[in-house]
Amino acid sequence: MMLALAGFQLAFALLGTALTFPTIETKKGLLSFPVLQKRSQSVNLRKRDNVVALGNVSTLTYLIRLEIGTPPQPVEVVLDTGSFELWVDPTCATAATQGQEEKCNASGRYVPGQSSTYVDKGAKQYIGYGKGGAEISYAADSILVPGSNSQPLRNVVFGVGVDTTELAWGVGGIGHGNGFNLHYNNLIDELHAQGITQSKAFSIALGGQYSETGGAIIFGGVDTKKFGGKLHKFDNMPPQIEGSKEGPWRYWVQMKSVGITTPNKVVATYEYSTMPALLDTGSTWSYLPQHIFDSLQDDFNATLSEDGSLEVPCSIVDQPGTVDFTFGDLTIQVPYSEFISQLEPGYCALGVLPRKGSYDRAVLGDSFLRSAYVIFDQTNQHLYMASYHDCGTNEQILSGEVGAALNLTGQCHSGHHLFASIPMCWIIVPAAFVLWVLVLFL
């Protein structure tokens, strides 16, 4: 989620924070649990008789579940590498669509008065995002960590929504915290400070659009059965200049080019596509400069819709083409089936919007990240990437010497990604039918 404003001057004492999912076991040195997928079956782009801009709509959102307070109160927040603070309890009535409002109401609420360990920190802050914003009141409370023998971390600082706009969920920001953007420990800081992880590094596999099980996040670890080939190391670029002000620390990586491989294997690379790119799980869409947006529109013969999307025939979703993003000598090829989303029945759009402003910067959201496996390393300010595939689970601890991850090789072959992006029922049902026919007639 593209963060615009944050509480840089808040100075709280060292406090802990963590996330929980009740069925997960942890290994000493890492914390691993699923990323939840919440899908809007129909975006219903009109609310209160107004056309809702596509940038304010999430067709597929990736969430993590927390249990806060005593007794624990379950809530869900967006998994967001584009911001760095945790807050809960959005104002559901202001969500962009009716469907998002309903999902917001069903995502759980934290009620401070129902927790015996709640502490009011006496501070408020406004946080602005690429879409909407939140006024939050800071609190401290317990948050349970899975695998910690039911002993919660104490006095965790986080925000409780006072008034929010255009946001259907709270936000679990996992960007750079204390010493970078904040004067108190955020999630990544506390997981390390409390000894749950051996490094301030984590890895994310979002999973495909149609994956039955979704993805996974591993704090302090990596899964060698979620990518293929070697990991490629990149510098986490420092804050990028936006106008006359230096922005906050984020996960910026130097992108070499953007291009396309058509279903008939014609390859094109777009001019002037070398630029810094922000890796942002909190953004459903990828934001590219207008000239690249225009090139994609031409190559897909797409129609610019009133909501800002590039509409394409849904029939091309299953064609074997890719949108290609190159970083150094690594190219992440995003299949059409992952880059194109069905917004409503019969209405499909490319997962890209034009980035406003005169600066050539890219924001690579979920439409890109579903096809990438990424390690975010705050210990050494590096990013590691490979193409995402799913061939099982093999988790490894990332110590303070995260550079050792370069010696890890992904155990998956290229074919796994194809099946990861297809609903399992599309595979299992035909296979079962073939087996039944063989048994019947042989």
UniProtKB/TrEMBL annotation:
<dbReference type="InterPro" id="IPR021109">
    <property type="entry name" value="Peptidase_aspartic_dom_sf"/>
</dbReference>
<keyword id="KW-1133">Transmembrane helix</keyword>
<keyword id="KW-0378">Hydrolase</keyword>
<keyword id="KW-0812">Transmembrane</keyword>
<dbReference type="Pfam" id="PF00026">
    <property type="entry name" value="Asp"/>
</dbReference>
<dbReference type="InterPro" id="IPR001969">
    <property type="entry name" value="Aspartic_peptidase_AS"/>
</dbReference>
<keyword id="KW-0064">Aspartyl protease</keyword>
<comment type="similarity">
    <text>Belongs to the peptidase A1 family.</text>
</comment>
<keyword id="KW-0472">Membrane</keyword>
<feature type="signal peptide">
    <location>
        <begin position="1"/>
        <end position="20"/>
    </location>
</feature>
<keyword id="KW-0732">Signal</keyword>
<feature type="transmembrane region" description="Helical">
    <location>
        <begin position="418"/>
        <end position="441"/>
    </location>
</feature>
<protein>
    <recommendedName>
        <fullName>Peptidase A1 domain-containing protein</fullName>
    </recommendedName>
</protein>
<dbReference type="InterPro" id="IPR001461">
    <property type="entry name" value="Aspartic_peptidase_A1"/>
</dbReference>
<dbReference type="InterPro" id="IPR033121">
    <property type="entry name" value="PEPTIDASE_A1"/>
</dbReference>
<keyword id="KW-0645">Protease</keyword>
<feature type="domain" description="Peptidase A1">
    <location>
        <begin position="62"/>
        <end position="386"/>
    </location>
</feature>
